[in-house]
Amino acid sequence: MDQTSIDYSNILEQAQHYVRSFFDTHVNDKLIYHNRKHTERVVESAVQIAQHYQLNDAEFFIVKIAAWFHDIGYLTGDGPGHEERGARMAEAFLEGTGVDRGIIDSIRKCILATQLPQRAVTLVEQIVCDADLYHLGTDEFSERNKLMRKEAEAVHNKKISKEEWRKGTIRFLESHHYYTDYCRLLLNEKQRENLARLKAKEPVDEEHVLNGLLRQHGLLEPGGKNGNPLEGLLRKAGVSDDPGSGDGEMQATKEKKNKKKDPGRGIDTVFRITSNNNQRLSSQADSKAHILIQVNAIIISVLLSLLLRKIEDHTNLAIPATMLLFVNLVTIIFSILATRPHIPPGTFTKADLDDKKVNLLFFGNFYRMSLEEYAGGMLVMMDDKDFLYGSLIRDVYYQGIALGKKYLWLRWSYNVFMYGLIASVLAFLIAALFFPSK
Question: Which residue among 78, 117, 217, 431 is least crowded, i.e. fewest CB within 10 A of its CB?
Answer without folding.
Answer: 117
